[in-house]
Amino acid sequence: MSNNIRCRSSYALLSRIAVAALGTLAAAASFAAIELPTEKAALIALGEQHKTAWDLYKALEAQANGGQRLNPARLPDWTGVYSRSGVLFNWDQDQGRNRMPTAKLTPEYEQKLVTKLDNIEKGIEFDNLSNCAPPGHPRWMTEPFLRDFVVTPDQTYLINEMVNDIRRIYTDGRDHIPELDRYPLWNGDSIGFWDGGKLVIHTNSLRSGQYQRTQPEYSEQVETVEIWEKTDDRTLIAHVWVYDPPSLVQPWYSKHTYLKLTNEDKSLRIHYWDCGENQNNTVIQTDTGSSQFRDFTFTDQDN
Amino acid sequence: MRVSFGLTTALVLCLSACAPEPAGQAPAAAVPAELVPAEREAKVALGLQHATAAQLYAALNARANGGAPLSLDDMPDWTGLWQRVGRPFFDPDQPAEALTSAKLKPEPLAELTRRRELSAQGIEYDPISDCSPPGFPRWLAIPFLREFIVTPGQTYLFSETVNNLRRVYTDGRDHPPAADAYPLDYGDSIGFWSGHTLVIHTSQVKAGIYHRNDPQYSESLEAVEVWRKTDATTVLVDVWVYDPAMLDEPWYVQQTYKQVPNPDGYLRIGYWHCGENPNNTVEQTDEGTSQFSDFTFTEQDDR
């Protein structure tokens, strides 16, 4: 056996051993330090153990020993086209058909919600989305339509088709924008870290808004912690804790599920969402708080 | 774990020692040194050699031996924030005194001449004033921030203006069948990688204008783009536009995007809500100029 052949044989053998060893290491590295309880009551309690979203985030970060930068050669596979599963307009799926949500609201925000629901029952309703405004975060979590999730080592993009709504999660170790430079943003400012296959996110600098059309409002003080994880080939789960002292007497925990859509022939593709091309827009809020299409009159034929 | 790490290190060192010499060996996927010629005249000629964008794309694909899928082990680094440089024309290299460098058919040439004359008189209307998307290929020429997000099966080309996101499928899928194809703001883009060079073919676009003072294009437009990073802060794109309804011959242009310095990471792209500008809605008047709807300048504004 020539030295060249011997070296090639050794190379092939050692390659297999090295691949196996590296695979073992990679698998070990993918173990998450953060182990979430399975019961909802315990997940709610986890939120209550921390006074602010930032406190919860820092506690999770400490538990994960600061997290790990993703290995560029072994990224979590979140590819595909997804859609939110569950009851469309419920922030927390456990609300079911109940009129009021599972949130522990402050009296002021509870009264606001009651008034809103009363008006909706009378057909008086206005939603900024009707006039092409973005839903903003955290409402972003509950919107329908298509989504894709793009994982790169230092940044993850959470994309919702509706109004081309992209959240950027910085996982490169950067901090939030300094307090002096912050101002309310539609999707806030999100930083995060990876713990195995779990993406942990903290979001602040948000605008006030509503969780959904029949759900409570939140204030500009709202902050969230999310833990995203792919639990099987077609399921992404996001655990969300919302902190908003003006509207919530305690953090509001909920779980959101996004299911991968069947797309074997790859004909399902997300396109640009030009909200304004709907001729019914612009929608205006009337003095009574209801919605009216601007410069749009139904004809007898429409009626 | 320490033992495994030591073992793996030893294996890697041994493999390095035994690894075949790269000199004289053909790379696994042979990549032509230059997919396209370096000189502008030769690039113009390359476009002329092919009757359609699809034919040029097929020729480049053949020259690249079908291309090779990206591997997570060897990804092009196009991270960061980018901005187009050059004059505000689709062809940044067109002479200052020229109407356009495109070889236009008589009718679009007359239309452009008339529009430029009106523009000189202050009579101008641009659909993006009313929050419409610029569409492709105008996307290539608009200002503001950009991101280029490369993943193995899909590349996302993002422009901050109205959250424009082009999706380029590099997973081997074809365009939708002709029976299912219809005009889209950004068309349908498929591509392949040749080394770290991305080649794209786009069809199914809506009609539009290349830029405010540039020609119109029709729905029959198709384009081939060749994207590559030429140094740490530069991405260059060669573009061939074919539009038999408007162009006498393919229009070749080169776009340059420079990385924006962001050492502290504070520069972040937020959601672009075009409609929150109270000057919108902008309408086109009978005269062809622009008017803000329901908006009157006060005497103070006029000062």
Overview of the structural elements:
Chain A has helices at 3-29, 40-48, 53-63, 107-121, and strands spanning 82-84, 146-151, 155-160, 165-170, 189-195, 198-204, 209-210, 217-218, 223-232, 235-243, 252-260, 283-285, 291-293. Chain A is α+β, with helices and mostly antiparallel strands and 303 residues long. Chain A has one domain: Lipocalin, CATH 2.40.128.20. In chain A, strands 1-2-3-4-5-6-9-10-11 form a 9-stranded mixed beta barrel. A two-stranded antiparallel ribbon of chain A has the order 7-8. In chain A, strands 12-13 form a two-stranded antiparallel sheet. In chain A, a hairpin with a 6-residue loop joins strand 7 (209-210) and strand 8. The longest helix of chain A has 27 residues, at 3-29. In chain A, 31% of the residues are buried. Chain B has one domain (40-283): Beta Barrel (Lipocalin). Chain B has helices at 2-18, 40-48, 53-63, 106-120, 299-302, and strands at residues 82-85, 145-150, 154-159, 164-169, 188-194, 197-203, 208-209, 216-217, 222-231, 234-242, 251-259, 282-284, 290-292. Chain B is of the alpha+beta class and 303 residues long. In chain B, 32% of the residues are buried. Chain B has 5 helices and 13 strands. In chain B, the strands form 3 sheets. Chain B has a 9-stranded mixed barrel. Helix content of chain B is 18%, strand content 24%. Residues 1-30 of chain B have low confidence and may be disordered. At the A-B interface, helix 1, strand 3 and strand 4 of A face helix 1, strand 3 and strand 4 of B.
